[in-house]
Amino acid sequence: MKNTKAAERKKLKDRIPKIVRQESWRYKRIGESWRKPTGVTNKMRRRQRGWPKSVSVGYKTAENLRHLHPSGVREKVVHRTADLEKVDPKNFAVRIGHTVGEKKRVAILDRARELQIRVLNPGISRREETAQEKPREAEPREPEKEPEQSEVTQESSEPEEKES
């Protein structure tokens, strides 16, 4: 079921032309993000032949195919482990909120693994990795050995010639 939705959505998306902002191909300073063309003599606004297509309601995606992850499931944002109980693993994948810390993220990952819910942004793959990342207690280090004085003095004790 998931793959059919994703394939169907891709098929629809391929039919829609690439919508770009007017003159974005001509000037570096104008980005491609869509802005509605205005102006009395504007060729793009008047849908003249040879100019790019404009945004139109006819390009709208079917409601059951909108907001899908490329894998064919819907996304749900969670901030705590209790939010996972409401998620159906067959139809939804989970994205952990960006404000969730490491400790709670690990708890959410563990619970999601138990419920067999897919996490889209795990951040931490295993509990062992988090244990390794924690700072260790300060261990006393051995002092580095300094070069012996005799080596330094031998180099500098070369006889200097006096000029007379």
Question: What characterizes the major β-sheet?
Answer: 2 strands, parallel
Which class best fits the helix and strand makeup? Answer: mainly alpha
Number of strands: 2
Spatially, the strands of the biggest sheet line up as 1-2
Global geometry: flat
Give the percentage of residues in beta strands: 5-15%
Low-confidence stretches: none
List the keywords.
6% strand; mainly alpha; 164 residues; single chain; 26% helix; flat; two-stranded parallel sheet
Write up this protein:
The chain has 164 residues and is mainly α. The chain has a domain at 73-131. It is 26% helix and 6% strand. The chain has 4 helices and 2 strands. It has helices at 2-15, 102-115, 127-133, 149-156; strands spanning 74-78, 92-96. The chain has a two-stranded parallel ribbon. The protein is flat, with a radius of gyration of 32 Å. The mean pLDDT is 85.
List the helices and strands and how they pair.
Elements: H1 2-15, E1 74-78, E2 92-96, H2 102-115, H3 127-133, H4 149-156
Parallel strand pairs: 1-2
